Amino acid sequence: MAHVVPTDPQAVLTVKKKAQSSRSWVLLDSTGETTVLDVDKYAIMHRVNIHARDLRILDPLLSYPSTILGRDRAIVLNLEHIKAIITSEEVLLRDPSDEYVVPVVQELKRRLPPVNAFHQGQDYTGGQNDVEAGDEDEFPFEFRALEVALESICSFLAARTLELETAAYPALDELTSQISSRNLDRVRKLKSAMTRLTARVQKVRDELEQLLDDDDDMADLYLSRKLAGASPVSGSGAAIWYPASPTIGSKISRASRASIATVRGDENDVEELEMLLEAYFMQIDGTLNKLTTLREYIDDTEDYINIQLDNHRNQLIQLELFLSSGTVCLSIYSLVAAIFGMNIPYTWNDNHGYMFKWVVVVSGIVSAILFILIMSHARLKGLVGS
């Protein structure tokens, strides 16, 4: 017989709150306008045309390595706290209330041109400024968004590395000057933090390196170029997939210009993206080199501490050797005293009072000579220092 288990209202409320927080997204379009969305994963999948396995990479409850994936209509970005979906016209960022995501949103709004300025730059047709504005506008939207994300991640990891260096080097110097339980525990925590941070930096670096080594993967990130191939100019109706946008006309015009490059055989040209990724790869590689230098400094400090401990241990062994040798010599002296202290009548004990002095002096000299011989032999064999 089946039984219905009553549910805890507080637990249900907690689950609902978690579900609501995980469904929160912030949308930034190409004009810099932001919109907070509270939708489920199916709406996101339909909006950006990605599969569920790609969206699962951005799930904060699951642990996935740093990933930059290029899809037909979107770039799936999972770099540390930045979990975003970038299209040719908009950016979707997860958990907009997160303290690390808010600066990314503000930087995106600053980098993206306002609507009025964009139209003025489009209507202006004279002078050198028009050429420069056109060149800046030619930089695809997805690359600008990707650049902000990479800059944020590299700056975040560099800041964490600087904080770790600021705390680690004085702690290591203090440990070398005074070996104590408090200093050892402090260095242990710093080393654990360094190991975790190194793993995070290594993941981002490996993802950028893997992306730079594959031109096909970099070509998949050219969303505007792929949009140009599917635009109405080329006879395709795929542009209907996108919702209405204030910049759809400019997108079509840029798609028309990009389609010319595609006809000329430049669709595999990834030099622009390669230079962008190489810049941040060098930055993240520099951060990793700092962590490697810090690790080597920690290893050198550990070696120095071990040498100091070995030296103290050797000094204790030498002290133990001195004490053991002295104990052996005194035991011989005690043996003589024990023999003469027996209550046995000796014939030579009568009228020979001077014998006590000779026994004491001779026994002491023999014990001292034996101690000197033991120490000389130990020093000759290198068991004690000179």
Give descriptors for this structure.
alpha+beta
Polypeptide structure, described:
The protein is of the alpha+beta class. It has 13 helices and six strands. The protein has a six-stranded antiparallel sheet. Helix 7 runs parallel beside helix 12, helix 10 (223-229) crosses helix 11 (248-263) and helix 12 runs antiparallel to helix 13 (354-380). The protein is rod-shaped, with a radius of gyration of 39 Å. The model is unreliable at 1-22, 115-136 and 233-265 (pLDDT under 50).
Give a brief description.
With 386 residues, the chain is α+β, with helices and mostly antiparallel strands. It has 13 helices and six strands. The radius of gyration is 39 Å and the shape is rod-shaped.
List the helices and strands and how they pair.
Elements (H helix, E strand, L loop, with lengths): L8 H14 L1 E6 L4 E5 L2 H8 L3 H5 L10 E4 L4 E5 L2 E5 L3 E5 L7 H10 L3 H9 L3 H12 L2 H37 L3 H33 L1 H5 L3 H7 L18 H16 L7 H70 L13 H27 L6
Helix pairs in contact: 4-7, 7-8, 7-12, 8-12, 10-11, 12-13
